[in-house]
Design goal:
With 196 residues, this protein is mainly beta. It has no helices and 14 strands.
Length: 196
Amino acid sequence: LSTMAPLFEVVEEGVVVEQPTSLTCCHARCVELSDGEVVACFATNSGVGTNNFETKLVRSHDSGTTWTEPRPVFPHLHESYSMAGSLTAAPDSSYLVLYGEKFPRSAADPDESFYKADIAGMKDNQAFFSISRDRGETWSEPADVPRQFGGAVEAACALLVTTSGTWLAGMCPHRAWDPDEHLDLGRLLCQRSEDQ
């Protein structure tokens, strides 16, 4: 394996966003639009395992050399939902899709964890998607992605928009906080939609 060529060569790297050290970052994704603009999304939360994710966007007009300040995607929902999503662009850049996980937040305990290590379970959640038709400036209200299994869902990958416009959404069943619930956790599921 040591004689294999690298899959890609890093020619430059730098910091896109530097958040206060009290925040952690995750779910980072970048897309390039047809005119060369790069849009990146990521989620922050106040600590590992804390159920207060907030998805944010940044932009670059110079191939990633400089970036705008982060802007929350759903600031009006942050008190009610913890949301972390991944970004996808349609092949013709006519729209963007944000796909990810949405956890209800507790008003009584805003710093609760979304994960219980003793049972390896996530707080009950839902996969969601949202569409932007103006390059990520505004977004549709998040819509739940239907699923045919109980427990929680892990939707940490980006949704795929094919050249024909079909959507493919990958997700995995995950144990929720009910230690007696039995799920087939060894599966990757793919849901297909042609009617966005």
